[in-house]
Design brief:
The strands form three sheets. The chain has a five-stranded antiparallel sheet with strand order 6-7-10-11-12. The protein is 8% helix and 27% strand. It is mainly β. The chain has one domain (8-17, 30-228): Lipocalin. The protein contains three helices and twelve strands. The chain is globular and about 55 Å long.
Length: 253
């Protein structure tokens, strides 16, 4: 379900907002930290993308020079088995960072000790501690990893580790001959801050030593949409044990 698509005029407003709001006073919580509570569009890489109405994918021009020769294949060819090529058709999680880039609304709920990120797509929920605790130990690798956050001035930094090998983004829908994967060594670092009254600056650093020779970063923005709050997020329910993904039925579940 895609319901958030906006005209170019809105894009121009967002692009100029920083210059027009030099006196912007960001919302702050009771403890004085920036308050990100609210509903936003998913992270988008450019103004042109604001009316594309599809999930964001990473710009290969950023990481292409850093692909590690002989490392795990970030690109996998589709096998024809939808459980591999598009496991979400079988209600498997999108994982992170892929799920964060999906084309649905995102809600942040923040208090002193936690930032809770709820994405409308698959109702993806991340509970991010902000109290300085370390990563948990002894966990099985996870689709969404183990996040912890800390503040660097007015920027929230979230580091997520302990991933299982899974899809990196939705590149499959751009080029159906290739499927991007990240390895189980992935570490993702997010930097979140207010850019202007209508926009969050959101940067994502990908550090995957099995795939790349060095970490790389892509910058995004997230448009603040307080008018969506009255409606809220819609429930996203996946059909369990779907035997006919994409209309192609199989005899086995």
């Amino acid at each position: 379900m895609i319901k958030y698509c906006f005209p170019i005029a809105a894009v121009l407003f967002l692009s100029m907002a920083g210059a027009q709001n030099a006196s912007f006073k960001m919302p702050r919580a009771a403890d004085g930290k920036p308050d990100f509570s609210g509903i936003y569009e998913w992270p988008k890489a450019s103004a042109a993308e604001r009316c594309r109405c599809s999930a964001t994918i990473f710009d290969r021009n950023i990481f292409l020079p850093l692909l590690k020769p002989g490392g795990e294949p970030i690109y996998e060819k589709p096998t024809g088995d939808p459980r591999h090529d598009e496991p979400r058709n079988f209600c498997m999680p999108a994982g992170f960072p892929s799920g964060m880039l999906s084309a649905n609304a995102v809600q942040f709920v923040q208090n002193r000790n936690y930032l809770v990120v709820v994405h409308e797509f698959q109702r993806m929920t991340r509970i991010i501690p902000l109290d300085g605790r370390p990563h948990r130990k002894g966990l099985e690798p996870m689709y969404y990893g183990d996040p912890v956050g800390h503040w660097e001035g007015d920027t929230l930094v979230v580091e997520t580790t302990n991933f299982k090998r899974w899809g990196l983004d939705d590149y499959y829908y751009t080029n159906p001959k290739e499927y991007r994967m990240h390895s189980d060594a992935l570490k993702v670092t997010e930097h979140i801050s207010w850019k202007d009254p209508k926009t969050l600056a959101y940067a994502m650093t990908i550090d995957d030593p099995k795939e790349f020779t060095a970490p790389w970063t892509q910058n995004f923005t997230m448009a603040y949409k307080p008018e969506w709050d009255s409606v809220g997020l819609f429930e996203y329910v996946c059909e369990e044990n779907n035997r006919c993904p994409g209309g192609k039925c199989a005899s086995n579940p």
